[in-house]
Amino acid sequence: SGAIGEESAVQIMHAGAHDYVMKDRLARLAPAIERELREAQMRSERRRMEEALRQSEHNYRVLFESMIDGMVVIDTETMRIVLANDNSARTYGFDTAAEMSGVCLLDYIHPEDRDRVATILMDDMVEESARRIHEFRTFTTDGRALWLSAITAKIEYQGKVARLLSFRDITDRKRAEEERKKMERRK
Fold first, then answer.
1. Does the structure show a pLDDT above 70 at 24?
2. CA–CA separation, 138 vs 146, rounded Å?
3. Would you state the pLDDT for residue 5?
4. CA-to-CA distance for 66 and 179, rounded, in angstroms?
5. What does pLDDT average to over the chain?
6. Long-range own/partner contacts, residues 169-176 (CB < 8 A, 24 or more apart)
7. Is the pLDDT confidence value at 1 over 60?
8. In the chain, pLDDT over 90 holds for what percent of residues?
9. Which of 109, 88, 114 minimizes the C-alpha distance to 168?
């Protein structure tokens, strides 16, 4: 520009221009162009990375929601569920996964198994035992007793350490095992 005032320059910058060069200061043109090219490349890279992050989050959300197993993310400080998938809601008898948010998982664990489950969820060595399967009793919202088979993993959720608990209902298998044991004792 040859006749732009400071006030106009500020308005133009607010409207989206990143810089301006006065005609009487053309020595600034090359550095301004170089800086803008670098910044444009950085903005482009940042947009690409943000899109990749959005896509990754979407993929993990789809994976989490489509798992055949129940999955919950538990805040280890409060033992409250912060995220659940639809299969966990069905297992526990909730209408929606959102209803499980804020529920204390330990309130639904059989009293005899509660301390063991709390220890499993608080275990700092969870990475080494992530493949270890834990079986425990739990209750549904209507009071039915279930056996679950679960594995746990230490994760970061919303900037905090949490536990991912993946589980499936093994009640039928446990009942069949009990029936088999009864039949063997009768022999």
1. no
2. 5
3. 67
4. 33
5. 87
6. 169/70, 169/91, 170/135, 171/145, 171/146, 171/147, 173/147, 174/135, 174/147
7. no
8. 56
9. 88
Instruction: Evaluate whether 126 touches 163 at the Cβ level (below 8 Å).
Output: yes
Number of H helices, E strands in the chain: 5, 5
Tokens of 79: 């033992």
Task: Give the pLDDT mean for 143-153.
Answer: 94
Q: 46 phi and psi, to 5 degrees?
A: -65, -45
Q: Which residue has the tokens 């006030």?
A: 7
Nearest C-alpha neighbor of 89 from the set 169, 175, 173: 169
Q: Which two tokens stand for residue 59?
A: 């993929």
Burial (CB count within 10 angstroms: exposed 0-12, middle 13-18, buried 19+), residue 162: buried
Beta bridge partners of 161: 156
Among 161, 168, 159, 64, CA closest to 122: 161
What's the gap between Cα 156 and its chain centre?
8
Confidence of residue 34 (pLDDT cuts 50, 70, 90): confident
Tokens for 98, please give them.
Answer: 């959102």
Single pTM value for the model: 0.70
Separation of first and last alpha carbons in the chain = 101
Identify which of 71, 75, 89, 86 has the alpha carbon closest to the alpha carbon of residue 118. 75
Residue 187 has pLDDT above 80, yes or no: no
